[in-house]
Sequence to fold (505 residues):
Amino acid sequence: MIHIPENPDASPTPADLRETWSRVGGDTAPAEADPLVLDCARRLIADPDGDTAHVWVAGLAEMVPYLAGQPTPGAERAAVEALLAAAAALGKHSCAHETHPYEEEFGELAEDDPAWFGLPTGYLFADGPERPRQEADLCPANIAGIARVTADIVRPFSADGIPAVVPEDHTSSVESLSSVLSDYPNWDPVAVLECNAGGDNWLATKGARAGYVITQHASCWYAVYRITERSVFDAMIDGLESVLPKLGDPTACTHSDDEHPDPEFESADTAEIGFHLRSPGGRAELRDMLDEYPPDAWLCPRYLRGLADEALTELRTAHASKFGVRDTSALDETYVRPDRTLDVDKLTQCVIDGDDFDEGPENIAVWAARRHPTADDPHERLVLLLLALWIAQVRDLPYGVGREVRTLLRAVDPGTLAANCAHGGDDHPDERLRRWDQRGFATHLRHLYASDSFPAPEAARSADVWGCPRFLAEWARELILRLDQEYQWMDQEDGYEGSAYDREG
Fold:
């Protein structure tokens, strides 16, 4: 329980006050925090230019972890009004200082980090452990600056006159993330997205939470269409799920729909806005950039919840597609004829026609891998294996698909790798046909499966060549080793221990 002075007119020492205020944190109950906030705000607004104004400004700054988190509306309103009154009153004084202590910390401020204010405000009470209190610490302009920045952390865009200094960490993060979202990454996209999705500071304040949601929404498309590592999706989904309950009441929105920023902005530009929203200096720079929409619209709970929900839907759908178990129950109806033979024409045409974002070929690969062990016809099993090998060769398979295909490929006997074959390897289908000539490969596969229905292509090979154990083992090994390399981190998470092909390689 935090001690609250029984007599509000008493004059406790600065040390006593600081000890009490410093115990107010982000998890302090409003019943304990609000009386302290309201008492401090009352004393400040009663004499915002008085001899003790610096004490009450420092007190509200000390309680920023609560005020910038999820305070009651009354406590937030009283604190901001008192801080702005002090900033206006103290800011009228002139001084001879070129800079002030609070400004010196701006380049180091990585977020709306409430802990940051424990450094400069500590000197307002007494000598600090790092250095004695200096004359400039109590300069009215320094106190006014602390009041403005504190008010802006509690209620973003509430104060004017804040230095437009973007934190160094944010400048670096904007550069790396913008390069990724422009599709010309200058750093590993997985590391960039995972780093931006994690951490705790983005939960601390309204500005940090808003900036985080906007940045993650802007990054969502890249994760969905470019990233295959599960850890990125896990981090982004976990982060957005954590921040959603802290975005505020969407019914409190006072904006019309056309006052909410367009989420279809260029993603790299939107990501930069998101980072600038996270700090007082960044928001100061945004004031001149955001003339199209009201600044507070970027922090609107209804707007932010819409972005977070949209991003979560996209990320969860992609997560299920890339890493979950595909439903192929309907594919028999599409690719198996009434006489129980394969419709090899449809199967191969789907692979040829599928673009990078078409899941059809991937679903066929999973379907073939599942059907292969139960197929009674050895000829059908060969065609299903070749189909899976071909798709794994020409597509970048997401983990959920690739692990099932890899299971099928691991069933190919690696013991034949060192064996001689009647073809000497020269008659085996070469890499050009297997990797680059998709229409040519489809023509060969159709003829192999149904020679009566599809004419022989040029340089047609017999079933004996296509089914050569050494040829199949060499092709399977090549793909297994590639998939093992691509999936190494997810394999570690899932306890995959490799295969005989790793040992043969």
Notes: The chain has a mean pLDDT of 87. DSSP finds 26 helices and no strands in the chain.
